[in-house]
Amino acid sequence: LSPDEDGICSGRYFSESGLVGLLEQAAELFSTGGLYETVNEVYKIVIPILEAHQDFRKLALTHSKLQKAFDSIINKGQKRMFGTYFRVGFYGSKFGDLDEQEFVYKEPAITKLPEISHRLEGFYGQCFGEDAVEVIKDSAPVDKRKLDPNKAYIQITFVEPYFDEYEMKDRVTYFEKNFNICRFMYTTPFTMDGRPRGELSEQYKRNTILTTMHAFPYIKTRVNVIQREEFILTPIEVAIEDMRKKTQELTAATNQEPPDAKMLQMVLQGSVGATVNQGPLEVAQVFLAEIPADPKLYRHHNKLRLCF
């Protein structure tokens, strides 16, 4: 605000009661949006003002709203839905400035990939003509030389919020893992000969981490990607990651409050039965049958044994 601008400070919001009014509106909207933890943060600013004015009627109302917010946190627990995220890449000169740009889209809670895919295809189909738009179905890196220059290509990939291990120490609650997030990850399985999936001993994985310009939730539901990092996991590292995941799932299922026998049974069957991908026995036979001669690989060998 520039103070010499006429009338700027005499507006109806530019007063204590105006500020309180705006903050109360914000708290209501946060509450409607299911972000109950932020309601508390907003009222932390309002309460001292009300206390200074000894406005007990409003204080009583504010505290009852706070109680509602805290009750919602307790009652809804893990059932709260904070959104689903997708990475969308645009390729083709038809897009103009959007060409080769990547965005992360935040979609309502349980949005499936076909839904967003259908919506974007329809939207850009209206812009460029239905025949001119094509959705790239995989998440592999796009080679622009292989694309038809007269078409507009959209690549859509499901992404999950990503945190470093040190961040996880601070992000304990379900809310903290879904609020103020700007890094996302997706994985692409591949083998050296170009197929996406192969035997355990040849299964590599590419982890791509994207950083967005602003943190979600944001005013807009799509935000530019400003940085991408890639990590290649070797077959034994892929096996370690899978085994760790299984162990975490088992721990979660065994320590669930209240206990859920069905859930435990499902996790156990998924851990032991080798139906879809090769089970733990196969992993052990492929990677742990002999001690590797290369000392660099020995660390991974040890990690995998610890996982077992």
From TrEMBL:
Domain DOCKER as annotated: residue spans: 1-308
Pfam families, sorted: DHR-2_Lobe_A, DHR-2_Lobe_B, DHR-2_Lobe_C
Name of the molecule in the record: DOCK8 protein
UniProt entry keywords in alphabetical sequence: Guanine-nucleotide releasing factor
GO molecular function: guanyl-nucleotide exchange factor activity
PROSITE patterns: DOCKER
Entry annotated with the keyword Protein biosynthesis: no
Organism lineage: Eukaryota, Metazoa, Chordata, Craniata, Vertebrata
Cellular compartments per GO CC: cell leading edge
